[in-house]
Specification:
Elements: H1 5-8, H2 14-22, E1 32-33, H3 46-53, H4 68-82, E2 92-95, H5 98-109, E3 120-125, H6 130-137, E4 141-146, H7 162-165, E5 168-174, H8 186-199, E6 202-206, H9 221-228, E7 235-240, H10 241-244, E8 253-257, H11 259-272, H12 278-289, H13 292-311, E9 326-330, H14 334-345, E10 347-348, E11 350-351, E12 368-372, H15 377-391
Parallel strand pairs: 1-10, 3-4, 3-5, 5-6, 6-7
Antiparallel strand pairs: 2-8, 7-8, 9-12, 11-12
Helix pairs in contact: 3-12, 4-12, 5-6, 5-11, 8-9, 13-15, 14-15
The structure holds pyridoxal-5'-phosphate.
The site of pyridoxal-5'-phosphate has 13 residues, from helix 5.
Protein name: Aspartate aminotransferase
Pfam families: Aminotran_1_2
Cofactor: pyridoxal 5'-phosphate
Length: 393
């Protein structure tokens, strides 16, 4: 028996690819990892206490969509953050981190055919890799749309031909963007919503970096929905406690959207989902209800942004990220730069092309490296200075 060809055709995932590039070379210094976007700031003190007081919950199967308390806490956060009113009963579902939801929601809502043809799913290029795999699994064709310096590092979906847009079922948009750090303005969201209304597709807003920002809280898709009065079924929002609360290991996030769309997502999840354990749902309830730890976390990222600005002051092509915790640094060739950096300094970064796809107009990630600002500050400083001196010296 054969394996499905549509998955076999996928490129190797970024991290095994990086290991294959670097691991048979010796590190040229004490290793500093700036590859994976795994937050290392402390999670709130009260996590242990909340977990301990809910241990009995491990004795029970957790509710698939999240407890009513958790969904109400998420609705409260969404109202405070975006001014949007969501019904916790019909519009919010707890998920095991946003990655699984970004995948499963596409399966749940993208139809087999649109306008009598195989559908398209819009994917910014470069991008968080699950979007393309979700499209392929949904039997849609991903359309990779450049999100480069020329377009403000966000995709210009409106520039696609009308006949392409008419076949679109889902458009992914990440803001703040991984890897580029660009933030979609309210106008950007409003224009995208108008495009979605015109061509009848859904926007999948990946907002898991929404609380990691430099100068002002990034506007969200739900905020644009409130402003525009567009059909609530147009927007599906994904967020998570991984970055906001430094709880990537808790595997807890949410997906929110219009009641009809959410009914489809929840239906599929009731068959294939692994609900978040009850003690972790209790932690999540508290986390979405508390802003103090988020503000403390933002202060730590502010120090890291300032450090990066200081180290790269005057470096050609350095653009401070507006949000998220990655630097997207221009180099001649990302793979060659990552290899040079590792063998000469021990600093490990990700070649941009591992996060992007070849298109007719080239590969928009090829001339970049992605640098995660997640290490403790002293280690981060050492790493950034070595990186600057090696690649921009
Ligand atoms: C852009 C983007 N979306 C989604 C995720 C998934 O995060 P989680 O599943 O931990 O919520 C990540 C994780 O790094 C990410 O970078």
């Amino acid at each position: 028996m054969k394996f499905p060809e549509r998955f076999a055709a996928l490129p190797e995932y970024a991290f095994p690819r990086l290991r294959a590039l670097l691991d048979h070379h010796e590190a040229g210094g004490e290793p500093v990892s700036m590859t994976i976007g795994e937050p290392t700031h402390p999670f709130p003190d009260w996590v242990a206490e909340v977990l301990a007081s809910h241990l009995a919950g491990f004795n029970r199967y957790p509710p698939n969509e999240g407890t009513p308390e958790l969904r109400t806490a998420v609705a409260g956060w969404v109202k405070r953050r975006y001014g949007a009113v969501l019904d916790p009963a019909t519009q919010i579902c707890n998920v095991n981190g946003s990655r699984e939801a970004l995948f499963n929601a596409c399966l749940a809502v993208s139809p087999e055919r649109k306008a009598g043809q195989r559908p398209f799913v819009l994917v910014p290029n470069p991008f968080y890799q699950v979007y393309a795999v979700a499209a392929v699994a949904s039997e849609a064709d991903p359309v990779y749309v450049p999100a480069t310096a020329a377009t403000g590092f966000l995709p210009d979906y409106a520039a696609l031909p009308a006949e392409t847009l008419d076949r679109v079922t889902v458009a992914y948009l990440c803001s703040p963007a991984n890897p580029q750090g660009a933030v979609a303005s309210l106008d950007y969201w409003l224009e995208l919503l108008a495009l979605a209304e015109k061509h009848d597709f859904k926007i999948f807003a990946d907002e898991c970096y929404s609380e990691i920002w430099r100068t002002a809280p990034p506007p969200g898709a739900l905020e644009a929905l409130v402003r525009s009065g567009a059909d609530p079924e147009r927007v599906v929002v994904f967020n998570s406690l991984s970055k906001r609360s430094n709880l990537p290991g808790a595997r807890s996030g949410f997906v929110a959207g219009g009641p009809e769309t959410m009914a489809r997502i929840k239906q599929l999840r009731s068959y294939n989902g692994a609900p978040v354990p009850l003690p972790l749902q209790a932690v999540s309830t508290r986390a979405w209800s508390d802003e103090t730890h988020v503000i403390a976390n933002q202060a730590l990222y502010a120090e890291k942004y300032a450090l990066a600005d200081e180290v790269f002051a005057g470096a050609q092509g350095y653009q401070p990220p507006e949000g998220g915790f990655f630097l997207w640094l221009p180099v001649e060739d990302g793979e060659a730069a990552a290899l040079k950096l590792w063998t000469q300094t021990g600093v490990r970064v990700l070649p941009g092309a591992y996060l992007s796809r070849d298109t007719d107009s080239g590969n928009p990630g090829k001339g970049y490296i992605r640098v995660a600002l997640v290490a403790p500050k002293d280690e981060l400083k050492r790493g950034l200075i070595r990186l600057r001196d090696c690649l921009y010296g």
